[in-house]
């Protein structure tokens, strides 16, 4: 397998709905072969599919394709020879001694939605499938910097935030 990967589970990114006031704040990589529980009558739905919301206005510069309203795929992989992974926000390259797994753009929910984790989304991201309906569960937007309490320099105002995932 690529980059010494020994095993991967492929799936779809899921998360809590953008409008829910409670529940999980993290995005999850949900496997494509779930072992489902029993159906319930009460409504405490907190797990939805995640869509890219990266059309023309929220698309990071340099990211390929228009994936607006497309579902987000994911992979959970095991590498026998690499034991440490870290995501570095604000960089597109790893520091000396580290190997780049991929680089991309920092994304999360819109600033007016419920809080979510930041994700480093590969600059060559692809949709889960070709379905493009607007279901608005958990959403991913490209984010920008805001100078003030974030010191500029070294940062620049209103710029895409790069990221890289590194292994050692």
From TrEMBL:
One of its GO terms (cellular component) is extracellular space. InterPro entries: Ca-dependent_lectin. This is Short-chain collagen C4-like. It comes from Mytilus edulis.
């Amino acid at each position: 397998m690529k980059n010494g990967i020994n095993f991967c589970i492929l799936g779809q990114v899921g998360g809590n709905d953008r409008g829910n006031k409670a529940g999980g704040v993290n995005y999850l990589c949900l496997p494509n072969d779930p072992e489902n529980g029993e159906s319930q009558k009460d409504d405490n739905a907190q797990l939805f599919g995640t869509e890219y919301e990266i059309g023309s206005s929220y698309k990071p510069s340099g990211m390929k394709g228009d994936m607006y309203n497309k579902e987000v795929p994911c992979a959970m992989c095991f590498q026998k020879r690499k034991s440490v992974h870290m995501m570095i926000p604000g960089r597109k390259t790893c520091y000396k001694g580290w190997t780049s797994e991929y680089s991309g753009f920092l994304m999360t929910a819109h600033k007016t939605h419920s809080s979510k984790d930041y994700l480093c989304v590969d600059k060559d991201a692809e949709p889960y499938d070709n379905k493009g309906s607007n279901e608005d569960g958990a959403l991913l937007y490209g984010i920008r910097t805001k100078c003030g309490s974030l010191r500029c320099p070294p940062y620049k105002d209103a710029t895409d935030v790069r990221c890289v995932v590194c292994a050692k």
